[in-house]
Amino acid sequence: xxxxxxxxxxxxxxxxxxxxxxxxxxxxxxxxxxxxxxxxxxxxxxxxxxxxxxxxxxxxxxxxxxxxxxxxxxxxxxxxxxxxxxxxxxxxxxxxxxxxxxxxxxxxxxxxxxxxxxxxxxxxxxxxxxxxxxxxxxxxxxxxxxxxxxxxxxxxxxxxxxxxxxxxxxxxxxxxxxxxxxxxxxxxxxxxxxxxxxxxxxxxxxxxxxxxxxxxxxxxxxxxxxxxxxxxxxxxxxx
Length: 239
Prior knowledge:
Elements: E1 2-6, E2 11-16, H1 26-42, E3 48-53, E4 57-59, H2 64-68, H3 73-95, E5 101-105, E6 108-110, H4 112-118, E7 122-126, E8 131-133, H5 136-139, H6 145-154, H7 158-166, E9 171-172, H8 173-178, E10 184-186, H9 189-205, H10 210-220, H11 222-228
Parallel strand pairs: 2-3, 3-5, 4-6, 5-7, 6-8, 7-10
Antiparallel strand pairs: 1-2, 8-9
Helix pairs in contact: 1-3, 6-11
């Protein structure tokens, strides 16, 4: 469901594979979490993670078909809650990963898929096909607490958050850049890959200490760390 490869430049590339929409069901979520933990175990000073996917979707959110396959509405809701709880450790792992992280959105990133992308330090997307979309207001779902906290932390403009959450705006590349959601939008997959790899190499060349980097990141998002159960940032001084 996903692969993890390491380049000669100390960059881990996590790629979502499998079906085209990369719906977040227990199998895919478990595969992503395992890959992140493998990257953490192999990390050295200067490691970087880039997450991307194959096909026209980065991720189209939770696997609602899997939830509905449970039969009754209560059982479907129970499955949906289960997926929400399973994704939480993935977000926590990314926020506490001891290396810089970049998401390369090569297609649509909707609902939980957008949350997965925004859990990275930097986000890039395609200009032609990429769309960011929080679908909950349109399909009749409320938003989990850690989703809301992450969105407040990562989308600084109140009007941008309003449009994303309360208007269900489908945000394309250039608009996402102007709203401060992504770093850059690129015309095609090749240019997106070049931009993210170039940025990854720049970050890797700094050879930062991963534990220090992780704690500085945690300090940026204290409310998010609380809701994710990560605790307060630790003081590390390597003099």
